[in-house]
Predict the structure.
Amino acid sequence: MTYCVGLKIDSGLVFMSDTRTNAGVDNVSTFSKMHCWSKPDERVLVLLSAGNLATTQAVISLLDERTKAPKERAPSLLKTSSMYQTAKLVGDALKEVIREAAPAGQNADAFGASFILGGQIRGTEPRLFLVYPEGNFIEAGPDTHFFQIGETKYGKPILVRAHDPKMSFEETVKLLLVSFDSTLRSNLSVGLPLDLLYYPRDSFRVGFEKRIGQDDRYFRTVAEGWSSALKAAFKSLPDFKP
């Protein structure tokens, strides 16, 4: 399993993903689930992946291969005219990979994968999409400022309660780390290190990128502080009176 979040704030887009994959308790590996393509001063595209590892890697490889020789292997992520067309390209690549992996008569569900796509192309607004295993997709809007894929249920409550588009990048990272800490404590299939990327609006360059490991001092401070704050909040509530 995995956990990935793409989140819109007024100043840009923030992405975070874990790196654990497992096929049983004795087969745990680390793979990056965050991928970025960019053309300086023209576009930045970020793709987060969850689901069948072979499927997600095949989709990423297919998309990446087509950026290297677009005339022979079109269409290319670096040639699309809008984020909508880019999302459609990702969805089409996903359908193509699953169609080849699961011939007629086989259950395609076993090969399923989902993606969060975000970024900006010059002349358009920053946009965020959720691409479903079927290849169709939806876009974040005024009422939905973030998407999650993978093991979403443990980290969602804090995002729903505390997220505000007016948050700074620094506040957003704090929020995401609390969400990921809740998931890490609840599900062993999600694990460190975490990948973090920030795209500042209208910059057309990656603004900040970091891998957060077990020894990261800020992550430990947030995790321990959140745990203490929850205990204090619980104790402050009135006791039940039968």
